[in-house]
Amino acid sequence: MDSDQKATVEMMKDSYGLDHVLLREPRGASARVYLFGGQVTSWKNERQEELLFMSSKALFKPPKAIRGGIPICFPQFGNSGSLEQHGFARNKFWTIDNNPPPLPANDYHNKAIVDLILKSNDDDLKSWPYCFELRLRVALAPGGDLTLISRIRNIDSNEVRIEGLETLDYLDNLQDKERFTEQSDAITFESEVDRVYLSTPTKIAILDHEKKRTFVLRKDGLPDAVVWNPWEKKAKAIVDFGDDEYKHMLCVDGAAIEKPITLRPGEEWKGRIELSAVASSYCSGQLDPQRVLEG
Q: What pTM did the predictor assign?
């Protein structure tokens, strides 16, 4: 084998006009990846022996899925969900990912690599209401080993988390104010939330990953904290609330609920909330006021 030979990646069209990528490594092994379905339809060793099954009756006619090879089943397998068999990813046209995750330096050595991406669109959201990016890396190594790496990212606009309330007790208004203890490292949102967290710290952080910013809520005289998001079903039932506005809001507020404040004649109570917004992430370790003072 010529030591100067390198792995190659070539964009091609088949007889049906469908785009695909041909990966070749120096010893002669190859793999063929279709942009339709992000599907590997061929994997040959250096002797040009085909290693994958493809039906002789496979139809290369979108949106019909290609029969054989390595299909990408997303977001469900088989009929385990409410979508069509094996989900919709195998029936969609993917695109070349021009901004793929970085590769370790040693992964570049004589490998033929293609990165594909599939993003949710309005049609997808009608049947599966989650915004996503699905990335697929197909790599052919010297000697013919084939590797597929999938990465799925939730890019919903409500990609928000709250830090500072972990391990605390809360009253769940969706379950008759029953008392629970927060088990998560941080609070995230995948459904309706209506809670009162008890005896909370003076600082709470709301991390907005999409916009790379963090809101810091500082409070005095307000021992509890309300956390609320109506989510999809309740948002549609609220007259003065947009159907999709739950994706763009989150209620976090200081409160005094568990122990109501009683004032005798002439007494006064004062509560204080201060909000600030800082760039990037907010270190959860800094939520301890004592640590901030010590720092």
A: 0.55
